[in-house]
């Protein structure tokens, strides 16, 4: 009885100390928010990049036997966990202070872009994350799943702030992550480089993980850097050339085939957008001619090549074996569908694809459903999928509206995320410090500033009035 009382008292003391620390940090953040509120949102991407790097450095992972020992990937404890907790606390403090500051200042109710998009995000977040905690097959409470909601709410509160400072902060954090990944490959090869990898690059028998959680995480971040550079070029020719060269090295050495495939339509989107601006009314004809030329080329190849022989050789190769099973993802998709059918409306809950779930299905490598829509169905059921579709619709509409002001980057970034939804789960907002959250946050912040229909109509009316003859 005495030991139980002491344990309970110690627990209450620790809880009180944690609450006091949180209040102290939040108070200091609110004090700083009055003077430096414009710097709070731009500080979030560098902090996220720092958290990604710290999570990898302190993970204690060993990539030497990664092909056979998946358990060696994440064994970080102790000091590493405390560092991540401090970074998470900093992210939450800055975000919460920005939200409370906006509430206390009672910002004017003048029209500002982004409110419908934010409401769609709330629907997606509540139906896909919070509701399954209560009504899922395995109800549970995980406090960390609420963190992204605070982050995105802070972004919405800062929707009137200029975007340039946020993009600059994101590029600083991402370029530091890329340079750090190349440095880690030299100084920490066992944790940053997967040796013995048979990729597509001739003469390159390794795969770069760098400071990312894995190669398929650092690769998309390198593509994100390219898009941000198109939207807001780094000043200084030599500085830009050096940074882009380092980023290109990470993009190639990561050997993320999915990201390489995504690059083609993303680049095509940027090119088509530029052609559309230059050709104006002739855009439709130009795109139609390009499509016809492509179809004719494919038809000629089909007529010339022996498809039966080519397909037979492909299916008998290792690539063909992987292709026939979609690199093992079909088994994971079957599990996702069966998990959803157990609770069609609300899904399994946030513990889906967690350690115990993976152990139960005998797939220690299945950290997600490897498809955003199946991921949402398995975790949050049909209600969560409905919220996801509504949110994607608002994202697409906003990305289209602000395409001109972002040089087409809003559309390219949206397409990059949508294409990755086919093989990954980049919009899952159950974690805070990861590359998908950073990419999602930047896309949200960019399209959040999309001009509204009323604003465009008013601007068109003013231009018409000014051009009208006296």
Strand order of the largest sheet: 1-2
Question: Any idea what the shape is?
Answer: globular
Taken in chain order, the helices and strands follow as HHHHHHHEEHHHHHHHHHHHH
Strand content: under 5%
Tally of helical segments: 19
Summarize the amount of helix as a percent range: 55-70%
**Topology, number of strands:** 2
Question: What distance lies between the first and last C-alpha atoms, to the nearest angstrom?
Answer: 93 Å
Quick one: biggest sheet? Answer: 2 strands, antiparallel
Broad structural category: mainly alpha
Uncertain runs with pLDDT below 50, 5 residues or more?
317-325, 453-470
Mean pLDDT: 80
Radius of gyration: 24 Å
Plain-language structure description:
- Helices cover 70% and strands 1% of the residues.
- The protein has 470 residues and is an all-alpha fold.
Q: Any descriptors?
A:
two-stranded antiparallel sheet, globular, mainly alpha, 470 residues, 2 strands
Topology:
Layout lengths: L1 H35 L3 H18 L21 H27 L9 H21 L11 H11 L6 H24 L1 H4 E3 L10 E3 L6 H17 L5 H17 L3 H23 L3 H22 L2 H10 L1 H7 L4 H14 L12 H7 L10 H30 L7 H12 L14 H13 L5 H15 L3
Helix pairs in contact: 1-3, 2-3, 2-6, 3-5, 4-5, 4-16, 5-18, 6-8, 6-9, 8-9, 8-10, 10-11, 10-17, 12-13, 14-16, 16-17, 17-18
What is this entry, summarized?
By secondary structure, the protein is mainly α.
